[in-house]
């Protein structure tokens, strides 16, 4: 046995809580978990017990989660009620994160970005901004912007001067029809509704993106 | 030490060579010691536009490969004593020289000349890299067409990443009548996209073609509007403040009088 157990099992009034160590390697944790379940076979072979798994600060990918569930399922009487980790709740605590960049994206240049981007400058024809989140261009958007590159169809594209060559959100591609044309002093944004690219004035952005909504008091 | 200025555009046929020839000549007209360098190896033109084709003995590739000294390859202009040209080779291609070799040549020339005008080939490949290697500053030439502006934008981006930031812009071949009728991009449209400093505008002028064919830079002909434009640009390079050329014809006396009497 290791000096410090990687898996701690606690009994609560309506089931068991498995606390998994979040510092060590995940495969070690699984190994330890498997060993524990095997060594205390009698304890886990009674009536159905609800199980909550707590991962601590560790964030797991789907395969890791599946492996974990597989091990627990080997015991017929363990019913997994939840798998929680602290990391999941963290981004929500931070709120809407945005990074600000300045410059000009010229023809042939590609700006790749993770997360939400506030770009102060122009995107020229032939230039491309790709971002996993929202893209806000404070300047003239004459080139192409691809928001939600990894498939986030809720992403939006906003620009002070909205004259793009092409827009992409997740896997929806749209060429600006003529009627988009640059209207006077109007800031616009693009979003996806029912698989179609839609354009609206920026004052209506809060209607589709509640998460960006700001509380203004009374 | 002199200053090396590369004249580039990305797109072909917008007037890089014409601009190089005329700026070189205009600077010489101002009494400066100037050398023009043609880096368009394989498709050299600067010598033809300057009317110096038949004086070429050695070229830039001969210098690089050690067949002659740099001074031997320089062709002296027939009009000015202080104007020289280093021709490109016609038989090789762009890969015959490397950016480092061009840089060394430009560095050598800067010791002797006040201005070095480098004529860049079209494209963004080796030829372009060669041309900008030794340059201290860049002039981007474009015409008021979307395709040319697009390529100019690409070039500006590449110049910025090569630390040749803040290049100057020449908008070439403007047709005032077409701009007026909205058929041609106007200078504002071009500047809005490129966002760089304008150093001059050159109106479209048939005399330029005539001059290029006769191997006599336009700038020598004081009757040509383009010549005045090039002279103005040369003065701006020297640091003078020269207002931009007025492209639209001034109203005649009769029109003014009619307007004065309210019948125009």
TrEMBL record, chain A:
The keyword Cell division applies. It comes from the Bacteria. Residues 102-199 form the Septum formation inhibitor MinC C-terminal domain. The keyword Cell cycle applies. Residues 7-83 form the Septum site-determining protein MinC N-terminal domain. GO terms for biological process: cell morphogenesis; division septum assembly; regulation of cell septum assembly. SUPFAM superfamilies: Cell-division inhibitor MinC, C-terminal domain. Keywords: Cell cycle, Cell division, Septation. Interacts with MinD and FtsZ. Belongs to the MinC family. Cell division inhibitor that blocks the formation of polar Z ring septums. Rapidly oscillates between the poles of the cell to destabilize FtsZ filaments that have formed before they mature into polar Z rings. Prevents FtsZ polymerization. This is Probable septum site-determining protein MinC.
Automatic annotation (TrEMBL), chain B:
The keyword ATP-binding applies. This is Septum site-determining protein MinD. ATPase required for the correct placement of the division site. Cell division inhibitors MinC and MinD act in concert to form an inhibitor capable of blocking formation of the polar Z ring septums. Rapidly oscillates between the poles of the cell to destabilize FtsZ filaments that have formed before they mature into polar Z rings. Residues 5-217 form the CobQ/CobB/MinD/ParA nucleotide binding domain. GO terms for biological process: division septum assembly; negative regulation of cell division. One of its GO terms (cellular component) is cytoplasmic side of plasma membrane. GO terms for molecular function: ATP binding; ATP hydrolysis activity. It comes from the Bacteria. Belongs to the ParA family. MinD subfamily. It holds the Pfam family CbiA. The keyword Chaperone does not apply. Signal peptide: none annotated. SUPFAM superfamilies: P-loop containing nucleoside triphosphate hydrolases. Keywords: ATP-binding, Cell cycle, Cell division, Nucleotide-binding, Septation. Gene3D superfamilies: P-loop containing nucleotide triphosphate hydrolases. ATP binds at residues 11-18.
């Amino acid at each position: 046995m290791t000096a410090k157990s990687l898996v701690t099992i606690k009994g609560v009034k309506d089931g068991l809580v498995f606390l998994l160590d979040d510092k060590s390697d995940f495969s070690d944790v699984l190994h330890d978990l498997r060993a524990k379940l095997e060594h205390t076979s009698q304890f886990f072979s009674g009536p159905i017990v609800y199980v909550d798994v707590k991962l601590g600060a560790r964030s797991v990918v789907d395969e890791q989660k599946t492996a974990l569930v597989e091990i627990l399922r080997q015991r017929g009487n363990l019913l997994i009620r939840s798998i929680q980790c602290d990391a999941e709740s963290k981004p929500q605590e931070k709120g809407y994160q945005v990074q600000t960049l300045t410059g000009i994206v010229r023809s042939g240049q590609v700006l790749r970005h993770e997360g939400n981007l506030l770009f102060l400058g122009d995107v020229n024809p032939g230039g491309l901004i790709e971002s996993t989140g929202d893209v806000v261009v404070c300047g003239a958007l004459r080139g192409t912007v691809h928001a939600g590159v990894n498939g986030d169809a809720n992403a939006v594209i906003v620009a002070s001067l909205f004259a793009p060559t092409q827009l992409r959100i997740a896997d929806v591609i749209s060429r600006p029809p003529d009627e988009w044309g640059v209207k006077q002093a109007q800031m616009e944004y693009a979003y996806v509704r029912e698989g179609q690219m839609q354009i609206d004035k920026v004052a209506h952005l809060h209607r589709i993106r509640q998460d960006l909504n700001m509380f203004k008091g009374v | 030490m002199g200053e090396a200025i590369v004249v580039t555009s990305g797109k072909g046929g917008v007037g890089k060579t014409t601009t190089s020839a005329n700026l070189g000549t205009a600077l010489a007209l101002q009494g400066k010691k100037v050398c023009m360098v043609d880096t368009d190896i394989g498709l050299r033109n600067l010598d033809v536009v300057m009317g110096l084709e038949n004086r070429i003995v050695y070229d830039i590739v001969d210098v690089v490969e050690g067949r002659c000294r740099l001074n031997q390859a320089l062709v002296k202009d027939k009009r000015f004593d202080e104007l020289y040209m280093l021709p490109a080779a016609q038989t090789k291609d762009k890969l015959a020289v490397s950016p480092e070799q061009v840089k060394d040549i430009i560095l050598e020339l800067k010791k002797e000349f006040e201005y070095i005008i480098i004529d860049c080939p079209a494209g963004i490949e080796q030829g372009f890299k060669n041309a900008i290697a030794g340059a201290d500053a860049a002039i981007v030439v474009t015409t008021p067409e979307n395709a040319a502006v697009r390529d100019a934008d690409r070039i500006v981006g590449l110049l910025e990443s090569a630390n040749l930031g803040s290049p100057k812009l020449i908008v070439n071949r403007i047709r005032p009548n077409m701009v007026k009728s909205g058929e041609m991009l106007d200078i504002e449209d071009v500047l809005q996209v490129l966002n760089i400093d304008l150093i001059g505008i050159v109106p479209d002028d048939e005399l330029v073609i005539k001059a290029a064919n006769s191997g006599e830079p336009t700038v020598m002909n004081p009757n040509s509007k383009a010549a005045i434009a090039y002279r103005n640009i040369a003065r701006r390079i020297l640091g003078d403040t020269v207002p931009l050329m007025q492209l639209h014809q001034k109203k005649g006396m009769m029109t003014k009088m009619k307007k004065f009497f309210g019948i125009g």
